[in-house]
Each structure stands twice: as C-alpha cells, then as structure tokens.
Amino acid sequence: MGTQYDDKRYLRSGRLGDAFNRLVGRLTGLGVSVAGSRLLTVKGRKSGEPRSVPVNVLTHEGERYLVAPRGHTQWVRNVRAAGEAELRVGKRVETIRPVELADADKPPVIRAYLKKWAWEVGAFFGDINAETPEAELLRVAPGFPVFRIP
Predict the structure, then answer these.
(1) In whole angstroms, how far apart are CA 130 and each of 63, 113, 116, 121?
(2) By three-state DSSP, how is residue 37 classified?
(3) String of DSSP letters for 76-123
(4) Are 48 and 92 in contact (CB under 8 A)?
(5) Among candidate residues 23, 145, 139, the one with its CA nearest the CA of residue 77
(6) What's the CA gap between 134 and 141, in Å, rounded?
(7) How far is Cα 43 from Cα 76, in angstroms, rounded to an integer?
(8) Residue 3 lies in a domain
(9) Domain at 50, CATH number
C-alpha cells in the first residue's frame, strides 16, 4: 500500500518521540538549543490555551522555514488557525507570522531540511530522503506542511 503522503497525513510521535520532545523542549526552554531547536508556542485553536512543541527552524537561501515532518499535526493546525506564534530559546522570544507554502514550492525546502536533520526526523519521511528526485518530492509535498517565517 505504501506510505500516505496526502493532506491528511499525521504521524503521532509515540512514547519515545514524546520523551525526546519533552527533553528537547525543556532544554530549549532553559536556553540550550539542541541542533538549532526552538520552542514553538501557539494558541490552541479550540482551547485558546498556549501549546508548545520543539521545532527545527531551517535557514535555506536566506529565508527561514518550519517543516512539519509528521504531517498535519496539532501545531500545524493551530498555526493555521492563529496566524501567529512565538519561537523561544530560553528568555529570547520572537513573535512570528508563518506563511504556508504551496505544494509546488516545497521540494527544495524539504530537501534542505532532510540534508540537515535526516538523522533526527528521517523516520517520519518514510522512503523520502535528500536524494529523492524533484518529481517525487512534489508528489509527497501535500503530506509535509512547510511555513516560511517572514
């Protein structure tokens, strides 16, 4: 059947992933960025309460991006609804207004993200890697939300 890469793709992190995220989140909150991590805080679309998750901010060709390797997760849905979020490392806080990319614009960003962080998130990409042909990256793009940080 193959891996699902459509706009409904959402991979839960599991117990080990949750533990890793808690650890990275705590360290990042204390001011220790793990491989470039930031703590993304966004208002919950249903509760209105702030929700935080560690993310990797990619700098590619002079622009910054957030990539959701697990698909259309809660943080992605919350960012879409709220339109803004905060990136934090320790006490340094930046308010951002992410702009979601069209699927056609995602392949070079996904490729750059995989080149930098495949060691950490490669399992979430299934059979996709930094060497995957452009046409295949375009085919799977709907399953990987990407936001530019202006």
Answers:
(1) 19, 8, 9, 12
(2) strand
(3) HHHHHHHS-EEEEETTEEEEE--EEPPGGG-HHHHHHHHHHHHHHHGG
(4) no
(5) 145
(6) 10
(7) 11
(8) no
(9) 2.30.110.10
Check if the beta carbon of residue 79 is closer than 8 Å to that of residue 69: no
Q: How far apart are CA 114 and CA 120, in angstroms?
A: 9
Residue 5 falls within a domain, yes or no? no
Encoding tokens for residue 77? 């849905």
Domain that holds residue 42: 14-149
Residues 6 or more apart whose Cβ sits within 8 Å of residue 35:
56, 117, 120
Side chain identity, residue 85: A
Q: Give the rounded percent of residues in the chain with a pLDDT score beyond 90.
A: 70
| φ, ψ (nearest 5 deg) of residue 78 | -70, -40
Tally the domains of the chain. 1
| Sequence-ordered strand ranges (E) for the chain | 37-43, 50-60, 63-67, 85-89, 92-96, 99-100, 146-149
pLDDT per position as a tens digit, 5-38: 777 877 677 676 667 777 677 777 777 787 788 9
* 119 token code pair: 């060691």
Q: Is residue 79 part of a domain?
A: yes
| Within a domain: 77 | yes
